């Protein structure tokens, strides 16, 4: 056997991952979005959300949708974490998953929360899921290609250790930056009211199409097997921070529309 091929085999086995393991912002990413959202809620929305969550913060509940993945009873919600699209497609043009997708999940959560006949238990569950899904929407590789599971099968290295492109964008860059989620949230860009209002504009589908344009660039940003290091973080962490902040602002916008 070719010696180069022999050396590559361990790398691909060690870096193989599934969508069950890495289809979400890392915990810190979701918590950043949740904390930023809290800063943009109306007082009325804050009170209603606080009552439902019994004092738990949006940052605290933001990882709930990932925590329940190990329970088979919640397996049907797995497709709600992402949208599969070809790089040259919009959401409207893409083939839809019959089991639903991220847009389906967000729409369902909003409907349950707006329905006066929904039980408190259902509202709490779907509120936690909504917080997570809006975060997922803003991770570019959640709006990725079906054939590589949103970058999960795009094998790369991170400082010499095997991983995949999805994981780099989920958590590797965030963890490498070395700040807590609260520090990242507190140090988000200082935006004007006009800038914030522009971020809030559009529908869920508009946001999906916007993020998908970033997905196209993310796929171009690394080659299979490439060793990504300091330069990659330098070039792309600004986009990560922007997406986390947009996710928080838009999450607050959706929650204010529901609860205000």
Automatic annotation (TrEMBL):
Organism expressing this protein natively: Polaribacter reichenbachii
InterPro entries: PLipase_C/P1_nuclease_dom_sf, S1/P1nuclease
Protein name: S1/P1 Nuclease
Family annotation (CDD domains): S1-P1_nuclease
Alphabetic keyword roster: Disulfide bond, Endonuclease, Glycoprotein, Hydrolase, Metal-binding, Nuclease
GO biological process, one term: DNA catabolic process
Entry superkingdom: Bacteria
Keyword Kinase: no
Pfam families: S1-P1_nuclease (PF02265)
A molecular function GO annotation: nucleic acid binding
Keyword Nuclease in record: yes
